[in-house]
Specification:
Layout lengths: L3 E8 L2 E10 L4 E9 L9 E7 L7 H6 L3 H7 L2 E4 L40 H16 L2 E10 L1 H12 L7 E4 L9 H11 L11 H4 L9 E6 L5 H5 L1 H11 L3 E6 L6 H19 L2
Parallel strand pairs: 4-5, 4-6, 6-7, 7-8, 8-9
Antiparallel strand pairs: 1-2, 2-3, 3-5
Function: Serine hydrolase involved in the detoxification of formaldehyde.
Protein name: S-formylglutathione hydrolase
GO biological process, one term: formaldehyde catabolic process
Length: about 280
């Protein structure tokens, strides 16, 4: 499999690069970005933090707005940002052109309903194909953690809970923790997975945390000024599920912060240090 390098930028002694490749999983060309810290070399393969972005985003939002490169360079951690869905002229999209479903809104699951099940296999892409590409082409190890924002926070939490042996740690900003019971999740799950709501629980962090056999260290930050807090995010549901299951969750409510990348940039250093202690422990 070949990669096409579409951009390269020097950043804090390392390199930020964008690539495209033909994905066997989602049957289209996909783009990702990687930040390689200055320590990365064939003789010194560095651990990786995978970042999953939210609705309407791409691989670019986090890399351009989060301000993560400086500390990642100091800590010697690579960062990989995936796209949020398949893209292309032949990819089915929300027929009404809404932002919360279809292109840009893959929800990091494997769709089972037509026509979505031809392309929307973002779970397999993030868990299987993308790490194989990264580990096969860059000076990184197979030691990894995962994080994300909003829809991507949902993806990070569910992926870590379902693959506890693969990820050293997981964190999230403003995650959709209980998608089965909120409008964003219900719309996506009905279309991608069908009307049998029991199948939705496979991608619901509040359900998965109750049956987790292994505890992946988990940090969640949520702004109490987030406009989506009460209708879509519901962090209290995750806290209650974790307490019932005896799962060691650190949930921090941050006063006055909203859903934007200003919030992420304010606390990304905490998350990078959190992951570093587990990636290098």
């Amino acid at each position: 499999m070949s990669l096409e390098n579409t951009s390269s930028n020097r950043s804090f002694g390392g390199w930020h690069k964008q690539y495209t490749h033909t994905s066997r999983t989602v049957h289209c060309n996909m783009r990702f970005a990687i930040y390689l810290p200055p320590q990365a070399s064939e003789s010194n393969k560095v651990p990786v933090l995978y970042w999953l972005s939210g609705l309407t985003c791409s691989d670019e939002n986090f890399m351009q707005k989060a301000g993560a490169h400086k500390l990642a360079a100091e800590l010697g951690i690579a960062i990989v940002t995936a796209d949020t869905s398949p893209r292309g002229d032949n990819i089915p999209d929300d027929p009404d052109g809404a932002y919360d479903f279809g292109v840009g809104a893959g929800f990091y699951l494997n769709a089972t309903e037509a026509p979505w099940n031809r392309y929307y296999y973002m779970y397999d892409y993030v868990v299987k194909e993308l790490p194989a590409v990264i580990e096969g082409h860059f000076p990184v190890s197979d030691v990894k953690a995962i994080s994300g924002h909003s829809m991507g926070g949902h993806g990070a939490l569910t992926i870590a809970l379902k693959n506890s042996d693969a990820y050293r740690s997981v964190s999230a900003f403003s995650p959709i923790v209980n998608p089965s019971v909120v409008p964003w999740g219900q719309k996506a799950f009905t279309n991608y997975l069908g009307d049998d709501t029991s199948t939705w629980l496979e991608y619901d962090a509040c359900a998965l945390i109750k049956t987790a056999e292994k505890h992946v260290p988990m940090l969640v930050d949520q702004g109490d000024g987030d406009q989506f807090l009460h209708d879509q995010l519901k962090p209290g549901h995750l806290l209650q599920a974790a307490e019932e299951a005896g799962y060691p969750l650190e949930l921090r409510m941050q006063e006055g912060y909203d859903h934007s990348y200003y919030f992420i940039a304010s606390f990304i250093d905490d998350h990078l240090r959190f992951h570093a202690q587990h990636l290098k422990g």
